[in-house]
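Let us practice reading a record.
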Amino acid sequence: MSTVDGRGSLTRSIVLLTSAVAAVAVLLTGLFAWRTIRTNAEAQERDQLSRQAEVLARTPPLASWMLDRQQRIAGPEDIKLAIVRPSGEIDGPAAVAVDAASREALLAGDSVSTTARLDGDDVLLEGAPTLVGGGLVLTQPMGAVDQATNRMRGSLVLPLILGLTGAALAGALLARRLARPLVTAARTAHRLSEGARGVTVPAEGPAEVAELAGALNTLDTALTHSENRQRDFLLSVSHEIRTPLTTARGYAEALADEVITGEEVPEAGRILRTEIERLEHFVGDLLALARLEADDFRLDIVEVDLDALVAETATSWSARCARHDVGFRVERPERPVLITTDGFRVRQLLDGLAENALRVTPAGQPVVLALRPNGPGALLEVRDGGPGLTDDDIEVAFVRGALTDRYRGVRPVGSGLGLAIAHRLAGRLGGTITARGGAPEGGAWFTVRLPPYPGAPYTPLTDS
């Protein structure tokens, strides 16, 4: 598996980690078992020797016969015997190993289990009281314990090796299970960064890995949606620019070829100027939206009388509406409505909404600009008698180009930037803007709520 920036792969790291953990566990288990095995081996030898001593103690004729014959109990362990007489006398090959404490214990009717010295070697000593008094003692060289210990320790090595090997294999399987979906996710992320779309990551593996896969799939969907919107927006921008450019180019070529002469020149110049102004306005909208979305937008915050600002705006738009045979009405309190804001940006916001309203309002229908005090802030409205907005329209009303794309060729549309700019302006001024249908005039109804100053704590405001 490949590595990144010199770092080892996840699979190798997990295998090494699990192998190291298994090795430590095996080592600790082995050390504990290594020490415990001798204790267990000695306990087993003592238990066996003690049972033999008890059997002989219950059969005095056999014990006496063995003692008289000075025989050892057959076996590789070289077990030797001693008898403690009721009188306290000790006889037998193992007599030297019986000390005073063991003799007294046997005479008192107690069993004995201890370690002693016999013929220069350490031996196990087990004694049992006899039925007629005294006791019987058996000794076994400590070498028998060592032999049993070695056998048991030898049988321990293979399970430890198998355990370590099994842990390494389990680590490899675990690493593969964890690393495979992560590697797949990493490759998918690289493909997304290179521009591939529509790629998905299967949600497999542990919950965290599956969550990562889900996040990448969501990112893919979001990138696809965003790029589609950008593509549609670029197509819209291209359309908006191409139309005035085509007109301007046609008139410019006509003037250059002297197709238009005499009294027709001023009219051609007027058309050229109109188309150039349209282009300038569109480019200005693009720059304004870009600056608003980048938060690179300066505000000049001063105390503003919104009543006076609305009156000034009404004067300008009343004349423009009259030229299109559209009625214009203003509703204002005709008294100062003072808030701290940027008056130029408020006017820019109102102009954008009014232009949008005038574009869709047919001749004979009204456009209304309204101002009302609202708590410590103010409420501004632009209503029209146009075709209005559906519920679906309201959901995307402030998405750049959304309504333009939806109604192109159906009704008059603009660049698709005006409402997006109005939305961003309202936000930069600390306010909100909402859209709805069903205005009293029959068309769309846009409401802007402005706080007493930008950054003022939000207070729910009513439309009353």
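A brief commentary: The first strand starts at residue 80 and ends at 84.
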